[in-house]
Amino acid sequence: MRLVLLGPPGAGKGTQAERLSQRHRIARLSTGDMLRAAVAAATPIGVKAKDIMERGELVPDPVVIAIIAERIQQPDAARGFVLDGFPRTVAQAEALERLLAQRGLKLDAVIELKVDERILLRRIETRVGETKARGEAVRADDDPEVLKQRLSAYRVQTAPLVDHYRAKSVLRSVDGMASIDEVSEVIGRLVARPAEIAGSRKAPKGRTKARGARRKVPKARRASHGKRKAASRGAKAKRVRRTAVRRRKSARVRR
Ligand code: AMP
């Protein structure tokens, strides 16, 4: 299963990605976490990304695309993955499609967490409080001013992905303002019904078929059904002719 979680910072992508990863035993791939690890290890990528991330801007596409290209080939991603924070631009989405297509794969679903931006600031404050309470270091970009920049980057560069994925019929939108468990439950239902995700029409929940509706027979089967009927009509006509011939013969013998 290959999923993308889409949503502004603080929408709960990380939490939901972690749950999906555990439930479906797929890899959680967070470009934010990978970049933070690169910054902490002062790798060449980390050195390049540090200031950009601290300003709340996006790291250049080629850098993150290269990270993901390498990461999705790792053995732990073979069963599938949930992408958290990638893609963030249309160019990244197109690169991902190419990378998957090269291996005969495609995304199963893109889950958009819809949230009220005004509440996000409060969520980030809560996250900062919880991180401090655990005695962990607070993210440099979990700051009200940087958050404004991250939200602006989301609106301008990432939000167009909603239309991009809607056009491909893989987008499913979820109310990200509900409780964490409720959001997980809705996502769980969506992920369990890939046919619905792919945009195929289904009867509304609780009703499998409209009352009195006829069972829909696929076109191919309808055609062969027609042929079978015609063949059986032909066989019946043959039987009737043969019986008539037999009767005429036995009548002649009796005479
Ligand atoms: P996140 O933890 O997903 O909120 O990401 C933290 C920061 O890492 C972002 O504000 C960006 O600076 C950078 N980043 C993460 N993922 C990407 C991406 N796909 N494209 C560009 N920059 C990214």
Task: Describe the model.
The chain has 255 residues and is of the alpha/beta class. The protein folds into two domains: 2-197, P-loop containing nucleotide triphosphate hydrolases (Rossmann fold, 3-Layer(aba) Sandwich); 217-255. It is built from eleven helices and five strands, in the order βαβαααβαβαααβααα. It has helices spanning 13-24, 31-40, 44-55, 61-71, 90-102, 117-133, 144-158, 160-167, 180-192, 194-197, 219-254; strands at 2-6, 27-30, 81-84, 109-114, 171-175. A five-stranded parallel β-sheet has the order 2-3-1-4-5, sandwiched between helices. It is elongated. Residues 196-218 have low confidence and may be disordered. It binds adenosine monophosphate (AMP). The site of adenosine monophosphate has 17 residues, from helix 2 and helix 3.
In short:
59% of the residues lie in helices and 9% in strands. The chain is α/β, with parallel strands linked by helices and 255 residues long. It is elongated, with a radius of gyration of 29 Å.
